[in-house]
Write a structure and sequence with these properties.
38% helix, 179 residues, alpha+beta, 15% strand, 3-stranded antiparallel β-sheet, two-stranded antiparallel sheet
Length: 179
């Protein structure tokens, strides 16, 4: 980990990704949160940089605890920022992200990115391994598998290890069908 200059001052470079920081402390924080994830979930193999995040994951993902309830509808959420995001998008109808090509508005940045990728770039990276169907989003492929190929439950773990652009990493059909 070397020191150099960043805007005329000293800089400290991450040996993992070459990101540069103004202080050793910033670099250490970066390495701990981005590259070092010692807290692993025994149920799904997700890893976290902080024990707190692992515990939050266990409660909301595996125990399905949803302590943050929306006062305007029946939905509840595992994390407070998910509730805030829901209220902003659904109840106040805020659309802060506009498409520069067609002007369509979206509540979330990732929805705008999905729109650009699927509508303007015509990208469909999620490929069905049972037929030639292609989808721009993982959820489209999941619906396709559940409805057309009668794969009733598609676990996130199956998709997490599957790189859609690499057919050789496709999970075996026997593994999918036993879900």
């Amino acid at each position: 980990m070397s020191a150099g200059t960043l805007d005329g001052g000293p800089s400290f470079t991450c040996v993992h990704c070459a990101a540069r920081f103004r202080s050793r402390g910033e670099r250490k924080q970066h390495i701990r949160t981005v590259h070092t994830k010692p807290f692993g979930c025994v149920e799904c193999k997700s890893c976290f940089s902080r024990k707190f995040d692992l515990e939050k994951h266990r409660l909301t993902v595996h125990r399905r605890e949803r302590p943050y309830a929306c006062e305007l509808c029946e939905l509840s959420f595992g994390q407070k920022h998910h509730l805030v995001r829901h209220q902003k998008a659904v109840h106040t109808k805020a659309r802060d992200f506009g498409c520069p090509e067609c002007g369509a508005d979206f509540a979330r940045k990732e929805h705008l990115a999905n729109h650009v990728r699927s509508v303007h770039e015509k990208s469909k990276p999620f490929l069905c391994f049972l037929c030639d169907a292609e989808y721009c989003e993982k959820r489209g492929l999941r619906r396709h598998l559940e409805s057309l190929h009668v794969v009733k439950q598609t676990r996130a773990a199956v998709f997490a290890s599957w790189q859609p652009e690499a057919k050789e990493t496709i999970p075996p059909i026997a593994e999918i069908l036993k879900l």
